[in-house]
Write a structure and sequence with these properties.
The protein has 197 residues and is α/β, with parallel strands linked by helices. It has one domain (6-149): Ribonuclease H-like superfamily/Ribonuclease H (Nucleotidyltransferase, domain 5, 2-Layer Sandwich). The chain has eight helices and five strands, in the order ββαβααββααααα. A five-stranded mixed β-sheet has the order 3-2-1-4-5. Belongs to the RNase HII family. Residues 4-197 form the RNase H type-2 domain. This is Ribonuclease HII. One of its GO terms (molecular function) is RNA-DNA hybrid ribonuclease activity.
């Protein structure tokens, strides 16, 4: 029987009103363990940045992919999250030429893959590979929001990362929506409807 090659996959950015949803896929190297892997939400930004470098240096393979705000509006956020996970796995295979024998994803829904895939609730706290994927997805998404902040400085993206905070909603009302806002999301939809009346 062939040895288990486990790939962990997680996504970041389902809740925000703006920007893409990101996912990452990671196959860790058992001979090069990484200390301190945990659910990305429980780590400081500095710690995530340090671990991102370690994961990229020590993992057997990794891939990161995204699904745009426009695609999210077209297919809905759940389908977009699944698509981001599929793209992340594909990016990993294309980059490293390594296939997994088993995929484990965080949450209770599984994307379709041509190999066995398990959904693990709170997997980002239980499975090191999923923790590593959650860290890569989160840091990639945060970097993309910093780029958006430079493009649209008046919205404060560096501070709220696109989430529906009071500041973000206030700036949305003040400046309107950008091309990066998810039009299918309640607060953005409401603003668009208000502008039409």
């Amino acid at each position: 029987m062939s040895a288990l090659i486990l790939c962990g996959i997680d996504e970041a950015g389902r809740g925000p009103l703006a920007g893409a949803v990101y996912a990452a896929a990671v196959i860790l190297n058992p001979e090069r363990p990484i200390a301190g892997l945990a659910d990305s939400k429980k780590l400081s930004e500095t710690r995530r940045d340090v671990l991102t470098l370690e994961i990229k240096a020590h993992a057997l393979a990794w891939g990161i992919a995204s699904v745009s705000a426009q695609e999210i509006d077209d297919i809905n956020i759940l389908q977009a999250s699944m698509l981001a996970m599929q793209r992340a796995y594909q990016a990993m295979v294309e980059q490293f030429g390594i296939h997994a024998t088993l995929i484990q994803v965080d949450g209770n829904r599984r994307p379709k893959f041509a190999l066995p895939c398990e959904a693990i609730v709170k997997g980002d706290s239980k499975v090191a590979e999923i923790s590593a994927a959650s860290i890569l997805a989160k840091t990639a998404r945060d970097a993309s929001l910093l780029a958006l902040d430079a493009q649209y400085p008046q919205y404060g993206f560096a501070r709220h990362k696109g989430y529906p905070t009071a500041l973000h909603l206030e700036r949305l009302a003040q400046y309107g929506i950008t091309a990066e806002h998810r039009r299918s999301y309640g607060p953005v939809k409401k603003l668009l409807a208000g502008n039409k009346t």
